[in-house]
Amino acid sequence: MLGQPVVNELSNGMRLFWLPTDKFKTVSVKLFIHQELEDSLVTKNALLPSVLERGTQQHPDRISLRRELEDLYGAELSTDVGKKGERHLIEFSLEMVHENFFEEKDLLRRGLEVMEGLISNPLVEDEGFCRSYVEQEKVQLAQEIKSLVNNKIAYALERCVQEMCRGERYGLYKLGKVEDLEQINAVDLYEYSQELFSRNPVDIYLVGLQQQEEAESLVNDVFSLQRNTSIVEIPPTTVYREKEEVTRREEIMPVSQGNLVLGYRTNIPYDHELYYPLVMCNGILGGFPHSKLFQNVREKSSLAYFVFSRLERHKGVMISAAGIDPSQYENSLEIMQKQLEAISKGEITEEEMENTRIGLINQLRTQQDNPNSLVNFYLDAEIGGRKHGFSDVIEKIQQVTVDEVVEAASRIKLDTIYFLHGEEGGGSK
Amino acid sequence: MSSQWNIIQNDLLQEAVYWQELPSGLKVYVLPKKGYQKKYAVLATHFGSIDNCFSLEGEKDYVEVPEGVAHFLEHKLFEDVEGDVFNRFATLGASPNAYTSFTQTAYLFSCTDNFHENLDLLLNFVQDPYFTEETVQKEQGIIGQEISMFEDNPQWRIFFNLLDALYQKHPVQVDIAGTVESISRITPETLYTCYRTFYHPANMALFVVGGGIDLDEVGKQVAENYASRDYPPLGEIKRHFPEEPEEISRQKVAQEMVVSEPIIYIGFKDESPEGLKGKDKLRRELVTDLLMDIIFSPSEPLYNELYEEGLISEEFDAGYVLESNYAYTLLGGETRYPDKLYQRIMEALEKIKEEGFTEEQVRRHRRAKLGDFMRRFNSLEFIANNFLAYRFKGVDFFTYPEVLQEIRVEEVNRRLEEHLRLEKHAVSIIDKRGES
Questions:
Q1: How many C-alpha atoms does B93 have within 13 Å on its Cβ side?
Q2: pLDDT digit string (tens) for B349-401?
Q3: Nearest Cβ partner of B142 from A21, A101, A302?
Q4: For residues A113 and A111, what is the distance between their CA atoms, to the nearest angstrom?
Q5: Is-same-fold flag (B6-239; B252-432)?
Q6: SS3 A231
Q7: Could you tell me which residues are beta bridge partners of residue B252?
Q8: Measured between beta carbons, which residues in chain B are less than 8 angstroms from residue A304?
Q9: Which of A67, A152, A351 sits opposite B91 (nearest CB)?
Q10: Is A257's CB within 8 Å of B12's CB?
Q11: What would you measure as the largest C-alpha separation in chain B, in angstroms?
C-alpha cells in the first residue's frame, strides 16, 4: 500500500506532493489553485483556465500548443474547475506516457513546461489577456453553463443543491453565472489572475516518478514563478445549519422520466468523530447495489432503474436520487424516506453493516490503482484537515459500530425535496 | 492439468497476455499487472443487441426474438433460485456489474480480496440461468425506467436517430435495450432459447487482469469449474442479418428535446467490413480513425476556424466505428447554428479531399494516437473490455501499436478519397424544444 505523499515546499511557496510509484504507464501531474467559493469570484475562476489554455507567449495559439503536446506522444493537458465544500479549485492536469517507454529524453520536462507556461507566461496584449480569446471563451462558458440541462440527472442533482443552499456559498454552481460574464474583460481578468497566482495556495501533485531527487529538482526547476511571500488563507466551509421546515421544489419540463432528489443536512463535518459512521450510513443507505435504496426501491418495488445516495464530505450534504415514473412520486418518496428512518431506528442487519464495510474498504484500495483518484484522496484529506493515509481510513472504517451509525443517522435532517418531471403524470401536491 | 498457457507479448507496452482454450471451448485470458491491488474479471458472450435472428447448426429454422433481449437477459442473470447475486458479491467485498453492447454481453466484478471466491461466483451465476414469469415481469418495470432515462438523453437519442438514418435494415439502428413494447413480448422461454445458443462456453471468453494473480491457480480453477459441467459440443451459430443496401436510409432526421443548444451529428456509412480479417480489419479502423483525427483535431486549422466562429464547442468530436458487418464515421457536437456548421463542414471536406495530407501530419497524429493508447493501459477495465470486444471481431488488440505504426500518408490519402462520400452521409439534429 502506498504511504503518505512526500510533501515539499518549493522556493516560491507552492507545495509539491510527490507519490512515488512505477506501476502506471504514465506520469500524472495535477496543479490546484485554491480559492474561496464566492459570489463575486466564481465566474472569473471558471473562465480563467479556459482562457489560459488558448495560448502562451511560447505557443500563442491552440494549433501550436496542441502540436507540441501531440509531439510528446499525445500528452493530455486539460483544465477544469472543482468545488469541494465552499472552496473553489482551479485545476490543471497533465498526463503523459512515461518517457522510459521511448528512446527519447526530456519529454516530461517539455510537457511540464507547456503546463507551467499557461500560468507564468500567458499571451498578453495591452496589459490584459488576448481580447479575442477572452470574448470567445465567454461565449463558450455561457453555453457550458446552460448545457447542464442537457443531462437531466446531473441537472436535477445540481438544482436540488441550489435550492437547498440558497444564500449559502455552497449553492453557487462551480461554472459560475451567465449574467456575470458581460462585466468581465481581458484586463480585469488578467489582473485578477496575477493576484491569484501570486497570493493563493498552489498544490502540485506528481504521480509516477520514482527518484525523489529527479522529481523535486524537475518541478523546482520548471515551476519557478515568483510569488508573494504571504499566502492568503481560504475561509472554512460552514456545515451546521438548522432548518425548520422541509423545502419542496417542483420543476416541469417535457421529459419522459421523473427525477426525484432528496437533499439532507448531515450536520457532521469532515473532521468530526462521527464522520466515518456517516460514511457507513451513506453506504448502507445508497452507496452499493446491496444498499437499502437499491434493494427496496429497485429490486423489491421495480420503481427505478437508478437510485443512489452520495455524500459531499466537505459540506456535510447527503443527496439521494432516483429516476422514476412521475405517477409513482408519492410511493417512491415514501419508500426512499423510510430507508433512512430505518437506519436511524437501528434497523441494520449484520449483513448490511459488514457488506458496506468491506465494500468501502474495497473502494479505498482500488482508488490507489488510478492516478486521479489517488490524487483526489490526498487532496480531500488536505482540504479537510485530516492528514491521513489509506491504511488510517481503512482502520477507521473497520472500527465503526452500529450504534455510531445510528447516532450519525439520527443527526441527518431532510432539507429539500426536488422533483423534475413532465407535464402529464403526478407530482407533488 | 491444463496449465498450457500461450503467450501474447507486447514489447512496447511491456505487457503479456497468457491464454488457453478449455475443452469446453471457453477461451481464458490472464494479464498479471504488477503493483496493482485491484483484480478485475470479465466473462463475456459474443451476443449483443444486433443478434436478433439466429439458428444453431442442425436446426432448420431461424429463431427471431424481440428487440432488447440480450440486454434483458443480462439483467435477469443476476437473479437465481437463491435470489439476488449482487448481495453475494457484496459479502465477498466485490463490486459487480454488467453491460450489453451491439455485439456482446459482459459480466464483471472488481475486488481486492477473496478473488477466487468472487471468480467462482461470477462463473457460477453466469452458468446458472433462472427465469420465471414473475421475475421477467418484475424486470419489465425496471428496464422500462432505463429506457425512459435514455429517452431523455439527447446524446443517446441523436446517436440512434443517426443510425436509423444511415441503415435501412440492419438491427444496429435499434436501441440496445429495445422498446417498452418489444420487451413486453419477452418470456422466460425466449430467454432460455437465447441462453442455450449464446451462453455456451465456445461462444464466450474470460479475461482476468490485476495484481497478485496466480496464473496457474486461475487456470486450474476455471478448468475445474467448466469440467464439472457437461457441455455437449456447440454446433456453429448462424446469425442472420437482413441484406443491408449500400445506400443510406434517409438524409436527415431531426427531433426536438429540452436542450440548451441544438446538437448535430453527421454520419458516413461505410461498406461492410465482412470480408476483412485480423490485422486488415484493424488497419481499416485505425487508418480511418487517424483520418478523422487529422481533419478534426484541435491541432489542425478546421477545428480552430469553426471554434473561433462560435460554431462548435470543445466537446466537438469525430471518430470511426467498425464492427463485424457494419462500419461508419461519426462527427459532431453542440452548436448554436447547425445549418451553418453543416455547410462549413461539407465545404471543408471537399477542399481537404483535393489537398490531401502531409507526411508531417500523419506522423504527428500517429505519435499522439500511440501515446493515447498506451496511457489507457493504466486501466484494467480498458484492457479487459477492449481485448474481448476486439477478440469477438477477430482482432488481436495487442497488434494495435504495430498496425498503427505501419500506416503511411499514401494510405491515409487513399482512404480520404474513397471514404466520406457525399451520397453516403446522413445528418441527425436535436433542436431546442419549442424553437425551430
A1: 19
A2: 999 999 999 999 999 999 999 999 999 999 999 999 999 999 999 999 999 99
A3: A302
A4: 5
A5: yes
A6: coil
A7: B427
A8: 142, 145
A9: A351
A10: no
A11: 68
Q: Is the pLDDT of residue B344 over 90?
A: yes
| Binary contact (B261, A74; C-beta < 8 A) | no
B278-315: pLDDT as tens digits: 999 999 999 999 999 999 999 999 999 999 999 999 99
Sign of torsion over alpha carbons B398, A363, A315, A318: positive
Judge whether B38 is closer than 8 Å to chain A, CB to CB: yes
Distance CA B425, CA B267 (A): 5
- In chain A, residues with a C-beta closer than 8 Å to the C-beta of B37 are 1, 365-366, 368-369
What residue spans define the domains of chain B? Answer: 6-239, 252-432
Residues B42, B27: Cα–Cα separation, whole Å: 12
Q: Which amino acid is at B207?
A: F
- Model confidence at A2: pLDDT above 70: no
- pTM for this prediction: 0.95
pLDDT bucket at B409, cuts 50 / 70 / 90: very high
**What CATH number labels B252-432?**
3.30.830.10
Cβ-based neighbours of A231, under 8 Å, separated by 6 or more: A13, A199, A200, A201
CA A180 to chain CA centroid, nearest Å: 23
* CA–CA distances in Å: residue A275 to residues A239, A349, A366, A409, B102: 12, 21, 21, 11, 43
CB of A63 within 8 A of CB of B299? Answer: yes
Please give the full DSSP string across B352-415, using - where no structure is assigned: HHHH---HHHHHHHHHHHHHHHHHGGG-HHHHHHHHHHHHHTT--GGGHHHHHHH--HHHHHHH
Name the architecture of domain B6-239: 2-Layer Sandwich (3.30)
Task: Kindly compute the dihedral angle of the four CA atoms of residues A188, A189, A190, A194, in this order, to the nearest 10 degrees.
Answer: 100
Contacts with B113 from chain A: Cβ below 8 Å: 358, 362
**Rounded CA gap, A284 and A402, in Å?**
11
Among the listed residues A223, A235, A309, A231, the one whose alpha carbon sits nearest the alpha carbon of residue A266: A309
Which ipTM did the prediction report?
Answer: 0.94
- Would you tell me which residues 152-171 of chain A have a C-beta closer than 8 angstroms to some C-beta of chain B? 152-153
Q: What is the pLDDT of residues B82-96, one digit of tens each?
A: 888 999 999 999 999
In chain A the domains, ranked by start, together with CATH numbers, are: 6-222 (3.30.830.10), 247-421 (3.30.830.10)
